[in-house]
Amino acid sequence: MYTDIASSDNGTHSQNGAQKSRDELVKIAPTDKLVDELWAVAEQRNGRAYRRLMKQLDWTVASEEQITKAIGITLGYVDSKQADYLSQIAIERFPNSQPFANVRKLFEKPTVRRIKRTWPLNTPGALKASAAWIREHNDDYEIGHWLAVKNGELIADAPTRNEFNQIIDSLGGPEILANDTIIHKVIS
Amino acid sequence: MSTHLPLGLDIFVQGAVEYLDHYEDDKTARIVINIYLADDLKPTSFIVDTGAPWCILDPILFEEVAHYAEPLEMHVMPMSIRGITYQGTLYRLPIRIPAVLGETQEVVATVFIPTLRTGDQWRFPNFIGLDGFLNRIRFAVDPASNLFYFGELM
């Protein structure tokens, strides 16, 4: 028999003690209502209720829609381990699903692309000088303003990103920027 | 005199990039690195944040590199960012760490792009998160030389 796991997680659910309750956790088939409940407890950041419900639901018999929603919950709740587990079940049961295939990519061994280009070690202090300039002048600009600062000197600024890009293009394009240029958006 | 870690395929890391230890006038110590989004040539500052879930990117910046990104096609539950709940979408996006020492590397990261309501402005920094990026590489930090070392998982 299903008990309302999420709402019974306030310490009143167990007559026989927590250990027994854990031992007797019976898997149940997910229903739309239970999956909605899972979403709700995850949104409330009720970790205990989330874990219990997630553990009790038998995802191997979930519908495609239910498991899709459950994976969305795990990703938003940043429960990667569970997202990995659910997506394995999902792709086994629904091998032609592109969304499930995409989610599986999150957990595959990453492919690293090596790129020959290496920048020379920045002029010592160049980045710090640019950061110091930004600290000094940040408040002179409106929120949302974009600045490019190199070697402690402002080389471009504009109130919107589009205008900023146009100025960079007029200066010779982004190639003029090295990784010792700080591109800064005023956010406070 | 500063010293550097040895770099190479048969050892822990293959590259290093210089980092700043503060973001703007934030008094909290940070690790801020300049990286590149896919083939875009404009460097973008990111705070390395092992407490951040996924990488989080300013939606305006994402517009410029969206053609490099692959959407997850999954409705993700709203995420809490610095106490504010945001709807958004997860994408896979190549992130390139430009080496000043050793080898530049590119890894496909998982990036959360917040959906803003009309008129809203994104007022947070960009974050490199643990899930979807940092836990897909090796990394080490040398505060003495402000170098962030990175390498491929073996």
Structure description:
The complex is a heterodimer of chains A (188) and B (154). Chain A is mostly helical and 188 residues long. Chain A has helices at residues 18-23, 32-43, 47-56, 64-76, 80-93, 98-105, 126-137, 161-170, and strands at 112-115, 146-150, 153-158, 181-185. Chain A has a three-stranded antiparallel β-sheet with strand order 3-2-4, sandwiched between helices. In chain A, helix 2 packs parallel to helix 4 (64-76) and helix 4 (64-76) runs antiparallel to helix 5 (80-93). Chain A is elongated and about 65 Å long. Chain B has 154 residues and is mostly beta strands. Chain B has one helix and 13 strands. In chain B, the strands form two sheets. In chain B, strands 1, 2, 3, 4, 5, 8, 9, 10, 11, 12 and 13 form an eleven-stranded mixed β-sheet that branches. Chain B starts with 14 loop residues before the first strand and ends with a strand. The model of chain B has no long low-confidence stretch (mean pLDDT 89). Classes of the chains: A mainly alpha (188), B mainly beta (154). Chains A and B meet through helix 2, helix 4, helix 6, strand 1 and helix 7 of A and strand 1, helix 1, strand 5, strand 8 and strand 9 of B. Strand 1 of chain A pairs antiparallel with strand 10 (104-114) of chain B.
